[in-house]
Amino acid sequence: MSRVPDASTQEKRSFFQKQDPWGQGVAIWVLVAILFVAPLAGSSLRHVRLDNNVENWLPENDPSAQEYLWCRAHFPEDEKVILTWEGSAADDMRLPVLAGMLSGQVDEDGARRGGLPYVDSVMHAGDLLSKLVEFGVEEDEARRRISGTFIGTGHLKVRLTEAGRDQKEKTIKLIQERIHSQFGLELSIHEAVSPWMPEELDEDAFQELYSRYQPALETETELAPSEFGQHDFQVSWTGIGSNQKLKQAVIDSINHVASFATSDEPNGRQLVDSCYEKTGTPIAVVVTLSEAGGAEKSKAIAAIREAAIASFIPDDGLIVGGRVVAAAELNNGVIRAAWNPNATSILGKSVIGFSGLVGILFAIFSLKCLRLGGLVIFVSYYSAFLGVSLIPLSGGSMNMVLVVLPTLLMVLALSGAIHIANYWKHAVWESPKTAVADATKMARQPCLMAAFTTSLGLISLINSDLAPVREFGIYAALGCMISVAMVLYGLPALLQMVPLRRIAPEEVKSKRWSFYSDLICRHWLSIGASTIVLAIACSVGLRHFDVETKVIRYFPDSSPVVQDYQTIEDNLAGISPVEILVRFDKQSQSDLRFLERVELVREVEEEIRNHPEVSGAISMSSFLPQRTSPGENATMREKIFYNRRSNETEKRIKEEHAAESSAFIVMNRLPEVNGDELWRINAQAAVLSDADYTTLTQQLSDRVGKITRYHAGVDHTVTGTVPLFLRTQLAVLDSLVWSSVAAFVLIASVMIWVLKDPLAGIGSMIPNVLPVISIFGLVSWFGQKIDIGTMVTASVAMGIAVDGTLHLLTWFRNGLRKGMTRQASVKQALMHCGPAMWQTSAAVGIGLLVLFPADLLLISRFGWLMALLIGAAFIGDMVLLPCMLVGPLGRLIERRIRLNGEIEVVDESEELNGSTVVPSPHISLHTTQGRKSKRARELRNPEN
């Protein structure tokens, strides 16, 4: 029966040498704790939810967010889905069928029957035109007013001459070649617009649906058939709606297409009669989601698609867009990155999983031991598992930034675990019984300091104005501390409990690292200077630095959602709403009659509509016929008649049609300005264009102010998602700068404390900062914008880079304390830390690089950018830092150690000052009975 050591013996032992009162090692209780926590964390992860609402990124006290929320308080905005399709028009027979299948029918009791539970209401161009005509607006004028919002111009129409029709295919090819040579555009050819009619086989089925839903139309107003003019085909190109000058130039060029010149016709025979654009197709069907639809966006969109297909709208021509679609696709992209059951390739099944698998295989290969590599990987993934479980446990939700958290936590744990594994590989040769305790003891300080500095880099992100970035900083910092706990306690416990083979001697010797360290020591000045010059050259690219916050830009151009967005913006309307609120105080309401206020808002609306970046605008004035105010010379009868009409119109809008008009005109609900009248103008801007939102917002505000400034008591506010995107864009830039500065200050403070020298502490940050600056400069050279997901990589990379710096500095200072030269100390540090740092950087970098094919660019960019940063950090730690330690930085540290009297007296035979001598292992090997073991001497001197 084993004897339990007394308390005094227990205190002298390290943590993993201690035993409980029953004689069991502490390691088993660590494993019990790991097993106990696992199901709790798994239960927490079952409640994880996704939330990618961009409108909630900014804090409520932000001025732009306050304006947006103030607008939403007065004009609530429901979640909407935009539908359109090729050839859709206001008189399309499928519209009443689609509207009925989506929203159902209202019976005699006013209750809605049928429809989708995900849909609250449906509005389309046919409804709007009917309302405008009912209110007294001419149909052509009504079409113009809703153009660019609910109805588009579509493709360019081309009408050929008789000669052109005789050789139609040749004429089309000639047009395509001409436009390509002049403008570099690839023209797409489409059939001419024609009214849709059901095919003969489907006619009875369609007529049954049509007769069922046609009475559901709210008005009996009959619209004239869409008139597009006689034309032979249509042409378009990607981006046709974003450049009106280019469009007009293409129209002019096509109008002059002629055949080859002949003696009879020296200018060639005219082939094109006319190329023109015509408002009327396509149209928008705006579907407002119900509460159930907002909660289950993906299911709602799928149900809406099915209803459209059942309404005889072809699936391949159906276009679905809107903020809801982008948010749903963003969530789906995150899920597909984790697991995509529809993918055909192994990589496509789970990009994140395959990334982890590559890291696992490389870690096992580099450690040259299947069991040891398995333990390292288990600790890494278990740390990520626990860290992510904190999100639902604390009531948080997963978003587009936090989706990369598991990968980050795995990286942090893998780094420390590989260092522990390498420490153990050396220590096990001297004393197998105490190898785990000795390795853990030696790794504790650099691992703790590395985790602490990395956490400081992550905590610096809480300075950001963006909620997802702040949450990422908090959860990542907590996860980092979990990772270091698993590395210092979980992995050593597993090493004690799992039997592992003894590592072969050649696996802990490294002639290559000895050769490399000699090369650095001999040529430190030229190598260091070249590295700094290259880093500075890359950093110059920061002058092209730019940020991106548009959610649609997180998808590749080839993705269906971007293609649908592009089609909508090219042919129908811009997708990003800009909202202009015009406010009339009590005095201005008294000075201006209601119809005068209508015309003032109409003037503002027209001014906004004429901006080249705005596709269209709509307001309450769009629904009312134009009424000119009688001048001072008007008769009393005319004035009385105008006043009566103004009062009647105001009553009809504010009382009879209050529910319908509340989307465009309300009374201010704030107590301090109670009684103010708010008019909303909704304009549409392109989200896919490269327009500068700063300029756009300012120009729109100037245009409105140019009109309202002549009326006392009238002011305006420009809000909506465009100004919100602009503010978010600036917040991303501010967050990147200030979080990087904060991370640098915090980490530098720690380095100063560790090295006990301000100059040395600041100098040691150069190899950690230069890689970050150079990589961001390099990607900026290539025009890559930084988004909200990739901006966090700066602070993360800086923290990870310090990990290697601390390990290297620990062994360098250890060599100096033993009286070694700077060159010998650098060699010792490189041979101790080089293999572990190389293994970590390669395993993590290659694993992250596998994220590149991810459908969601947010994940793809994070993967390859982090891989570049880790590679650059490895160069900083393994190339630049050793050169600086041989040179000026090393002199500063050496001087401080001498001043503090920290140099020890050691056996000269142990000093590393020759190229043929291999340094001692990661930890100081113990002697047994005053004699060094034969195996230890083998490891110390490869010549024996």
From TrEMBL:
Localization in the cell = Cell membrane
Entry's transmembrane regions: 21-42, 346-365, 372-394, 400-424, 474-498, 519-542, 736-755, 762-782, 788-809, 829-852, 864-889
Which Pfam family, an example, fits this chain? MMPL
Xref: InterPro entries: MMPL_dom, Mycobact_MmpL
Query: Which intervals hold domain Membrane transport protein MMPL?
Result: 702-886
Question: For this UniProt entry, what is the primary localization, expressed as one broad class?
Answer: membrane
Query: Record's SUPFAM superfamilies?
Result: Multidrug efflux transporter AcrB transmembrane domain
**In which domain of life is the source organism classified?**
Bacteria
Provide the alphabetized UniProt keywords.
Answer: Cell membrane, Membrane, Transmembrane, Transmembrane helix
- Annotated region (Disordered), positions in chain: 923-944
Which GO cellular component terms are attached?
Answer: plasma membrane
The way this protein sits in the membrane is described as: Multi-pass membrane protein
Tell me the PANTHER family matching this sequence: BLR2997 PROTEIN, MEMBRANE PROTEIN MJ1562-RELATED
Name used for this protein in its record: Patched family protein
- Gene source species: Thalassoglobus polymorphus
